[in-house]
Design goal:
Helices cover about 55% and strands about 20% of the residues. The protein has helices spanning about 1-10, 10-15, 105-110, 115-130, 135-140, 145-160, 180-260, 265-280, 300-325, 330-335, and strands at about 30-35, 40-45, 50-55, 55-60, 65-70, 75-85, 90-105, 165-175. Keywords: Coiled coil, Mitochondrion.
Length: about 350
């Protein structure tokens, strides 16, 4: 009956957190005590704080000394219950997380707060709601690491007086309303369609650029080919003109040499007579109208007239050569070591 009465008088918080370390039964004062590793026992003497027992062998005075708190120095993992929070764009979210903490000062953890684990859990929930209110829905999913860091920093600022250090906070899951989830899915599909359209347009753009570049290169090559062809044609025509000029000059040179020889005038007369006869043979072949001199039948007269013209031209050319050719004085010839080449 006494036990039943005690259970009924126990606060509801103690019943829900029966697995927490600070609710466990306290060790009795047996004068000689062995404290386990990674634990700190807080001892009170006559109701006041006396000292903290370190791991190992310890001695206490019976009746006067009492073990009041047992603090674990290990890292503690606390499951933060799911809570609702409103983002900056007025979207209600359901978020739960995991909190990792450790007790650094057993004295502050024992006398600074009544229930350190419950206090840190409530602080984590309130900090989470305040931090989510600063972010929009899209940033909540993208900046989870930043959100966790801000929550840990805020918890450590408030829990310094409790002797507790928050190591890290991790968000386990984020639940959004069904309608918001559908809109997010539609947004994702629209974003994918946009990317596909952009990629397709970029493909068309690159294809058009490649086609234009190919046409440009083809026109450049064609113009270069035409240029090379014109250069080759011009070079060929120039070579042909030079070859004709050289052949004509050679023929004139040979003809002049032949005329300078003995009986050259007779050979010239024979050539003129042959050309005269061949010219008469072509008369009236291309046209019916013919203009003839009055003495066309006098071949000897025509040859004599042609040779007279040739003789007068030869005399004039010889006079011009004599005027142009400079006369070198004898004293200049004696001083010059290298004689000048003969004039052609």
């Amino acid at each position: 009956a006494v036990c039943t009465t005690l259970l009924r008088t126990v606060p509801a918080l103690w019943a829900t957190q029966a697995q927490q370390r600070w609710v466990s039964s306290l060790p009795m004062n047996t004068v000689v005590l062995f404290v386990p590793q990674q634990e700190s026992w807080v001892v009170e003497r006559m109701g006041r704080f006396h000292r903290i027992l370190e791991p190992g062998l310890n001695f206490l005075i019976p009746i006067l000394d009492k073990i009041r708190y047992v603090q674990s120095l290990k890292e503690i993992v606390i499951d933060v219950p799911e809570q609702s929070a409103v983002s900056l764009d007025n979207v209600t979210l359901q978020i739960d997380g995991v909190l990792y903490l450790r007790i650094l000062d057993p004295f502050k953890a024992s006398y600074g707060v009544e229930d350190p684990e419950y206090a840190v859990t409530q602080l984590a929930q309130t900090t989470m709601r305040s931090e989510l209110g600063k972010l929009t829905l899209d940033k909540v999913f993208r900046e989870r690491e930043t959100l966790n860091t801000n929550i840990v920093h805020s918890i450590n600022q408030a829990s310094d007086d409790w002797g507790i250090r928050c190591l890290r906070y991790e968000i386990k899951d984020i639940h959004v309303p069904p309608r918001v989830k559908e809109s997010m899915q539609m947004q994702v599909e629209a974003e994918r369609k946009k990317r596909a359209t952009v990629l397709e347009s970029e493909g068309h753009k690159e294809a058009a650029i490649n086609v234009a570049e190919g046409r440009k290169q083809a026109q450049i090559l064609a113009s270069e080919g035409q240029k090379a062809e014109q250069i080759n044609n011009a070079a060929g025509e120039a070579n042909a003109v030079l070859a004709k000029a050289e052949a004509k000059a050679k023929a004139i040179r040979l003809l002049s040499e032949a005329l300078a020889e003995q009986n050259g005038n007779a050979a010239a007369s024979l050539s003129v007579a042959e050309q005269y006869v061949s010219a008469f043979s072509k008369l009236a072949k291309e046209s019916n109208t013919i203009l003839l001199p009055s003495n066309s039948g006098d071949i000897s007269g025509m040859v004599t007239q042609a040779m007279a013209i040739y003789g007068s031209l030869a005399k004039q050319s010889s006079k011009k050569i004599e005027r142009v050719t400079p006369v070198t004085p004898e004293w200049a010839m004696e001083k010059s070591e290298d004689p000048a080449p003969p004039a052609q």
